[in-house]
Design brief:
One of its GO terms (molecular function) is transmembrane transporter activity. It is found in: Cell membrane. InterPro entries: ABC_BtuC-like, ABC_transptr_permease_BtuC. The protein contains 27 helices and 2 strands. The protein is mostly helical. Helix 6 (153-177) runs antiparallel to helix 27 and helix 21 (528-544) packs antiparallel against helix 24.
């Protein structure tokens, strides 16, 4: 009797927890909805206005064509995301899988952005097909990159992060080139549930119904994926076909959500995770309760953003990102990781440690700096400046070039320090969220005050970068700091930074143009003061890092070996974290948060043969400086008289480069 009562009691308790998980947000959302309706229209007119709308009454029009469709789409989109997350997590055996973290949303978004700006005729048959094509392509790219590591959770999330950052860079470049549409595009991309009529609701509902039926038809074969592939095959199912079918339903459904309302972050992660924690153990239970939880969460979130006192309404997707990022940190300790084999992606190269190669690199960088200074493009075409012309051009070009080379050198050194400290060749300030943390601190400063000075921005960025590093270090506290969880925690920090930028861009702030340029990684407004700050920081960093050589030689050996050789790991890591945070903050301030230089430069230095600790530091600095100088020069000349931000151009090159590295690693 006792053994039967225990499971039965847990089952009953789990059922009540699930009801509470869905019911409490739903009741609160219903109360806020009723209060909003009463402010708009008397209760005795609700039914009449729905069936026979008086088009001469603005209140009834708002009720019929704005309020009710928005309520309906929040419920439908939330349910769709809950089902999507459940399917993806089951198919990929990954508790962190959802459309944002595996790149589906980013692909759908960039496809719709391209179509909206340059090929609106593609939208004539509906936005859904364009979103589906983009989401499918980006998801296929993620799966192809993760295949070499047997689709492990970490490999999929990291691949999704890289694909998402690349697509985000492309979207940001498109919006920077089309400033007149940038605010509207940012609001849409941030997940706005604002409706104008019921066309979106009526178009989305059939997709959700078909996807729901298909998901439950696949229930039995999907449930067998809990077994090994051999076990599933012995029971008469084909795991590859099942995964493909489940992924097709999930990608289609998430792409439809993007087409309907933009990117709604983390609901697809939160709903399945919460119902699992509340007691939904079986796949059938999760497929029933997760859509209900997703609908209730998005409904409540949408009602809350409408009552928050803000100058303009915060998009619902931004609000869900604020909730989802902390949830991701909470789930990271429960993630099972596989042994790190990413180091295999680095080809074996001939080792070089001679300083003669560094001198050759310095000469090449000096020649590039001179070329960037004197070679340009004007109304008459390509032109090499004379000595007399150079006197006029120097005040314009010199600060930009100095900022670019200094930022590139700082990011290159910071990336090398991070990879040596963590023992992970994928670590970089941009990937681990350090750049995101610095930009988050600067964005918060924009919110807090109207008078933003350079010293204040440096201080705010430094606080944000150190806070990001502290959270990342806390994530790996119970395990070696090289653990793959460090990479995944960067997803949360980067997401929160993106959410804050979306809030500012949706606020109508008069500094919007400056903010967009900075977020894009622009050197347009570089001043002599910026150049001085960046150059002094870079020189100081290069003077200090040689003192850390012994630590950098020992740390890759592992925590036990490092302790055995007498290193005080806490003190060493704190010093290294400061050496990473300060230059990353300054580089983020002067060049913006979008760049893959911190990842590319150390890899290129190793590919050139620099293997020991000290030469790669200087080689990474040289390579990083050359990358950003070249990106700034190319952005200034390629599409003259318009310009491409250097950070965006570097990110658009760095994203595919990282994908190539991962593709080589899988082979």
């Amino acid at each position: 009797m006792q053994s039967t009562a225990g499971p039965r009691a847990r089952f009953v308790a789990g059922g009540w927890m699930l009801v509470a998980l869905v019911g409490v947000p739903a009741v609160l959302a219903a109360y806020l909805t009723a209060a909003g309706l009463l402010r708009l229209l008397p209760a005795d007119m609700w039914w009449q206005s729905l069936g026979a709308t008086d088009f001469a009454d603005p209140r009834q029009l708002l009720y019929r064509d704005a309020f009710l469709p928005r309520l309906a789409i929040s419920l439908l989109a939330g349910a769709a995301l809950g089902l999507t997350g459940t399917l993806l997590q089951q198919v990929l055996r990954n508790p962190l899988a959802e459309p944002t973290t595996i790149g589906t949303n980013a692909g759908a978004t960039v496809a719709l952005t391209i179509a909206t700006l340059y090929a609106p005729w593609m939208l004539e048959q509906g936005r859904e097909w364009v979103a589906l094509a983009g989401g499918a392509l980006s998801t296929l790219a993620v799966l192809a990159l993760a295949q070499g590591r047997s689709f492990s959770p970490v490999a999929i999330i990291i691949s999704g992060l890289v694909v998402s950052l690349t697509c985000s860079s492309a979207s940001a470049l498109l919006m920077a080139a089309n400033r007149e549409y940038s605010e509207e595009l940012f609001i849409w991309q941030s997940g706005s549930l604002i409706q104008n009529g019921d066309a979106v609701v009526l178009g989305f509902a059939p997709w959700l119904a078909v996807a729901g039926i298909a998901a439950f038809v696949l229930l039995r074969p999907l449930r067998l994926l809990d077994l090994s592939d051999e076990g599933a095959e012995s029971l008469g199912t084909k795991p590859v076909v099942t995964r493909l079918a489940g992924m097709t339903v999930a990608v289609a459904l998430s792409s439809m959500v993007v087409a309907a309302v933009g990117v709604i972050s983390f609901v697809a992660l939160a709903a399945p995770a919460l119902v699992r924690l509340a007691g939904a153990r079986t796949l059938r239970q999760r497929m029933i309760w997760a859509p209900l939880a997703g609908a209730a969460l998005l409904w409540l979130t949408d009602r809350l953003v409408q009552v928050v006192p803000f100058t303009s309404e915060i998009p619902a997707g931004v609000a869900t990102a604020f909730l989802g990022a902390p949830l991701l940190f909470l789930l990271l300790p429960k993630l099972r990781t596989s042994p790190d084999r990413d180091g295999a992606m680095l080809s074996s190269v001939r080792r070089r440690s001679g300083w003669v190669y560094l001198l050759a690199g310095l000469l090449a960088m000096a020649l590039l700096l001179c070329a960037a200074l004197v070679v340009g493009r004007g109304a008459a075409g390509w032109h090499v400046a004379s000595a007399a012309e150079l006197a006029d051009l120097l005040p314009l070009r010199a600060p930009r070039i100095a900022v670019a080379v200094s930022a590139g050198m700082m990011l290159g050194v910071a990336g090398t320090l991070m990879q040596r400290m963590t023992g992970n060749p994928m670590a970089a300030p941009e990937v681990l969220g350090v750049s995101g943390g610095a930009s988050l601190g600067i964005l918060l400063l924009f919110v807090a005050t109207s008078d933003v000075s350079r010293p204040a921005m440096i201080a705010a960025g430094l606080v944000g970068a150190l806070a990001s590093l502290a959270m990342i270090s806390q994530t790996g506290r119970r395990q070696p700091i090289a653990n793959d969880r460090l990479l995944l925690s960067g997803v949360a920090v980067a997401t929160m930074a993106s959410a804050f930028s979306a809030v500012l861009l949706a606020s109508g702030d008069p500094r919007l143009d400056t903010l967009i340029g900075w977020l894009s990684g622009s050197t347009y407004r570089a001043t002599a003061a910026d150049a001085t700050i960046a150059a002094v920081t870079a020189i100081a960093l290069l003077a200090v890092v040689p003192l850390t050589i012994r630590w950098l030689e020992i740390l890759p050996l592992g925590e036990a070996a490092s302790r055995g050789l007498g290193l005080s790991l806490f003190r060493v890591r704190v010093i290294l974290l400061v050496l990473i945070a300060v230059p990353t903050t300054v580089a983020t301030l002067v060049i913006g948060p979008l760049s893959f230089v911190g990842l590319m430069a150390p890899h290129l230095a190793r590919m050139l043969g620099f293997q020991r600790a000290l030469p790669p530091l200087f080689a990474s600095a040289i390579v990083g400086g050359m990358i950003l100088v070249l990106a700034d020069w190319a952005g200034r000349t390629l599409i003259f008289p318009w310009q491409i931000p250097a950070g965006l151009l570097a990110a658009l090159v760095g994203g595919p480069y990282f994908m190539v590295l991962m593709w080589k690693g899988r082979q």
